[in-house]
Amino acid sequence: MQKKLFFITLVLVFIFPLSGCGVNMQTDEQTPAYPQSSTPSFPSDVKLDTNTNSVYRVSFPADFTSTETSPMKEDYTSWDLGLSYPKSYFIRSISEAYVDMGTGDILCSGSLRDGNRLTKEAQKISQSGVVLDIYTWSEAGAGNIYQGRVATVKKDNVCYAVSLFLHTTQPENYGTHEAEFKQYRLEHEAAQKKIFETFDSIIQTFEFVQE
């Protein structure tokens, strides 16, 4: 098996989050396509060799750190990279957030390895013109909320995927009176929205690169 090659390149640019890409996207049976937006850009990028004839590149913020412990790692047939959101994105009700990328037919089939079905939300066109299918998923238990978004594309019969995993707790767990509950919920929703917008900006940079 050809060894995966990872190349990190720093770029001095800033994040421009995509507008209208909050957590609560509306499902549309017509599978609407997102319009192509201005170029989202980040301080670093990574190039991954996925042991096929295709190579893809995804850019992400420089303060993201690589991780081997992402909960969605097992959903990939060939897992290339896991990234952890920095603590600056977190408040008390947000426990963890990860981005993963690699190849895996199970994700293109619209499900996760544990059987949880993905809900197809829309299609997004990346800046390089790659059409990505966008899925979301969520589940809850024991006061914990797990949710995510998955972007997939097939090329030469290989499914490429970039995914978001977000673990939060109920914002109502924090505060002692109604006004405090309401304020913290607003802070929770704003922090969650920023995490999803950053992920949407990451997948906007997806491109195939010919070597």
CATH class designation: Alpha Beta
Q: Which CATH architecture is right?
A: 3-Layer(aba) Sandwich
Query: First CA to last CA: what distance?
Result: 18 Å
- Total beta strands: 11
CATH topology: Protein Transport Mog1p, Chain A
Q: Your description of this structure?
A:
This protein is mostly beta strands. It has a single domain, classed as 3-Layer(aba) Sandwich (Protein Transport Mog1p, Chain A), CATH 3.40.1000. It is built from two helices and eleven strands, in the order ββββββαββββαβ. The strands form two sheets. A seven-stranded antiparallel sheet has the order 4-5-6-10-9-8-7. It has a four-stranded antiparallel sheet with strand order 1-2-3-11. It is globular, with a radius of gyration of 17 Å.
List descriptors.
single chain, 211 residues, seven-stranded antiparallel sheet, four-stranded antiparallel sheet
Quick recap of the structure?
The chain is mainly beta and 211 residues long. The protein contains 2 helices and 11 strands; from the N terminus they run ββββββαββββαβ.
Secondary-structure blueprint:
Layout: E1 6-10, E2 44-49, E3 55-60, E4 65-66, E5 78-84, E6 94-103, H1 105-108, E7 119-125, E8 131-141, E9 144-155, E10 158-169, H2 178-204, E11 207-209
Antiparallel strand pairs: 1-2, 2-3, 3-11, 4-5, 5-6, 6-10, 7-8, 8-9, 9-10
